[in-house]
Amino acid sequence: MKTQPNQHELKHKLEELRKSQDELEKSRNLYAFLYDFAPVGYFTFDRNGVIHSANQTAERLLGRPHAKLNKEKFERFVASEDSFVFSNFLRTVFSSHEKETCRLRLSRQDRQPLYIRIEAKVTEAGDECLAVLVDITEKKLADQALAESEYNLSKAQEMTHLGSWRFDPVTGEVQASNELLKILRLGHKERTQEAFASVVHPDDYENVMLHLQLGIEQGKSYEIEHRLKFADGRERWVYSIVEPIIDSAGKVLKLYGTTQDITARKQAETELHDKTNELQAIFDSIGDGIMVYDHEAHVRRFFILRFLRSRKNARLKGRCRGNGSIIL
Length: 328
Hints:
The protein contains eleven helices and twelve strands. By secondary structure, the chain is of the alpha+beta class. It has three domains: 26-140, Beta-Lactamase, CATH 3.30.450.20; 160-266, Beta-Lactamase; 286-328, no CATH class. The strands form three sheets. Strands 2-1-5-4-3 form a five-stranded antiparallel sheet, sandwiched between helices. The chain has a five-stranded antiparallel sheet with strand order 7-6-10-9-8, with helices on both faces. A two-stranded antiparallel ribbon has the order 11-12. Strand 9 and strand 10 form a beta hairpin. 43% of the residues lie in helices and 25% in strands.
């Protein structure tokens, strides 16, 4: 014959049940709070992309209150250029039964740009998917700004024939801009210290390496002009400015440099020097004096040649003005 539980045991069991219910309620409230105020948006969609539930962060991201989100198609909030991307993504989610990810641009009423990463997976029942939306607008805009900055820098370097580079003296790692590789006639896989050194002119190699060593060991900034020599025998002139980055202990962490192709300038300087010597040779070979006057008829430049030295030196003496002009 079964023994009926006494009143004390029933009361004890009821108390334990009540405590369990209270703890369950607290846990449910906690998870509800975490769900609503999570830093990401939570959604559930059906196969047609209709929203069945959303947390408060999701409402904020879409700029709509919960009452206006329920039973709406999520595609309505997707920017037109990404509408096909979302449709294809949703089909993939329900067909793969794996977690899928895509990135979209949303269209908001305030027209502020909003970029999201959405991750979704179909439920076990297969009629809905659970989705998480992460706001990546700040990163997206930063990436766009960086890409634009890098593009502008690349174009500026291309127009000025100036390349930039960075060297880590500890690891030997070299990073170089596309324009520098173009100047050095190196490929993207040749960003090594050995490849850079191989194109330095043999007659300038020792001087270039000496400056580099001083920059590494003593943290000295420097400027240097030197030649490059390529496999086909052609030569180019470059001008480099190098700045070290030093830590609090005085150790050189990195060397940053810019290298500009100055071949055209060097050629112009050589041509000017040759032309000057040619004119001087012409002046020295003629027997007449040459005077250059300004608009006030003052002599600004004069060349005392053989004829002047022999005949008119005495007349010119003492007639130079303070500004270098001569009145005859």
